Amino acid sequence: MKVLVFGSFNIDKVYMLPHLPVKGETLYCKDYGVHVGGKGLNQALAFKKAGAEVFAAGKVGAEDGAYLTDYLSAGGVDVSAVDGTGTYTGHTIIEVDPEGQNQMILFGGANREIKKEDCDAILEKHGDADLILMEYETSCVEYMLERARKAGMRTAINPSPFVKEVKELPFEHADIIILNEFEGQSITGETEVKKVLTALYALNKGEIILTLGSKGATYYNGGREISVPAFKVDAIDTTGAGDTFTGYCLYALLSGKSPEYALRFGAAASALEVTRPGAAETIPDKEEVLEFLEQH
């Protein structure tokens, strides 16, 4: 299985705080760490650990981007389509409270410097992939989604993080839309899960995967709706949980597994990931996920 992940590559700066700050508040940081991150990087690693052959595509800064591409390469991800000539590598400031909840500040940097001709070059080289997965932390997402569909590729979009422009994405070119409850509500204007699912399905007439946090996840394809509960674990850091779910869940679907199994596979992987501080570095191996499923 060959997967092309077109996405963001960031350096994550994580601050462990006594609580998330309010307006005007100054807090002492309890701990600090620098990690690899970005939704594209996280999802590429999750897909790879699940078992896929993964090719990453995007852009990083010329001075510090090797920090990210070297990490991906060491993890078995092909980075030949990651452009290393950007200005500043994207980075994220992540604030985490003792319960593992977080809030983030994202600087796009090189991720936002991708041009249409870059997308064309990527597809010319990797148009034979079984799936292209993208999110919304880079430029040219709309163009890439349309071009990939016209090239005959199977397409998946994780419209995250949500900004108002996400609502204008050409979702009709996406075979799979995978997103969280907040993003689904923001795109559709609906609040009830069933209405969110049907409204999203009306956009692409394909497959919808909606994550619901502690309430689990749901799959919908217009004909059937399948839900699974979340696994109960003691969360330390929820950063990267959605990306871990995305890689593992989509891998299972592409492997021919049932939607129910795919949801459980993704949920198990994300459950393990949140019990450890960090994001990309804490994505579990496939063996760990399978063992977890056997025990639950």
Task: Please describe what this structure looks like.
- With 296 residues, the protein is α/β, with parallel strands linked by helices.
- The chain has one domain (2-295): UDP-N-acetylmuramoyl-L-alanine:D-glutamate ligase, CATH 3.40.1190.
- 34% of the residues lie in helices and 25% in strands.
- A nine-stranded mixed β-sheet has the order 5-4-1-8-9-10-11-12-13, sandwiched between helices. Strands 3-2-6-7 form a four-stranded mixed β-sheet.
- A hairpin with a 5-residue loop joins strand 11 and strand 12 (217-220).
- Helix 3 (116-126) runs parallel beside helix 4 (141-150) and helix 5 (181-188) crosses helix 6 (193-204).
- The chain is globular.
- It starts with a strand and ends with a helix.
- The mean pLDDT is 96.
Short characterization:
The protein is built from nine helices and 13 strands. The protein has one domain: UDP-N-acetylmuramoyl-L-alanine:D-glutamate ligase (3-Layer(aba) Sandwich). 49% of the residues are buried.
